[in-house]
Amino acid sequence: MSGMLSERDFVILWLLNLLVAVIYLLVGALVISPVRTRKERKAKVEVCHDNRRTYLLRFLVMVLCPVVAPLFFLFSYILFRMPLWMQPSLSDVVFSKERVKIRLKADEERERDMIPLEEALFVNKSKDLRLVMMNTIRGDIHSALGVILLALNSEDSETAHYAASVLSGELDNFRSKVRQLRRSIAEEEENETEAELELLPYMDGFLKQRVFSELEQKKMVSIMAEAAQSLFGKDPGRLTEAHYESVCLRLLETEDFAQSETWCKRLSAQYPDTLASYTCRLKLYFSTMNREAFFDTLAALKSSAVVIDNETLELIKVFS
Q: Measuring CA to CA, how many Å separate 141 from each of 87, 137, 158, 173, 320?
């Protein structure tokens, strides 16, 4: 039939299609993907472009679907890039330096119904529990992950679903940012400490809420200790009292007593006249049942000029 390709024409068309597919694979996997990877890592951003595996899968689709697949990928690329090629018209855009302050009226009904999430879980009324969960999600989620974790065991399936969705998203974002900051630490110069200073308080805010499994908690605490060690090796003076205390307590929670003792000693050496230098050692010696060291540290705290908070004061009253 005149409307159908001959066998010879089909073979030529298939070979041309194969040639295009091979060129696409080689250029994408060996040129475009490595160049974008280096560029994004240099810019310290998350790598989010097509990788070699993507180009290989498209190559297989092109070979199995001659002509149709290459045209499909070509038109998809053109449609995707078209908005970037078009010059936007800014004739109707007005840039103003005026600032408008918007004052929102307080939602008195919503505030009147607010109760702690722990109490809602205890009462376990589905309507109240869902309302409190949604109000919690709208607020500061990062500091409420430990409470949201409790809602996973709720008898109300919708509340448990809310909690699982929020936790999954927040923990995935946490893992992604930790990986990004660790790459930044590896690429830093000897005198650069910005990535460590950002990573330590960020990780502590999540790890102190104990929202990970025991195994992953230990892994994350180990990563945090590595970042602190990197900062200590570069410039110990940039480690604050809060940095030392957070590392000590997180290691103590995972029962890594040896490393916790090392950081407690560093804390007491660099910041000897602070409350944290005493409380961290007290918690360590209590956990390891080192009675003599515990009471020696407690006596030193009582005779020092350090201002004591209510929690430590109660501790002194109990053991005095």
A: 40, 6, 18, 13, 40
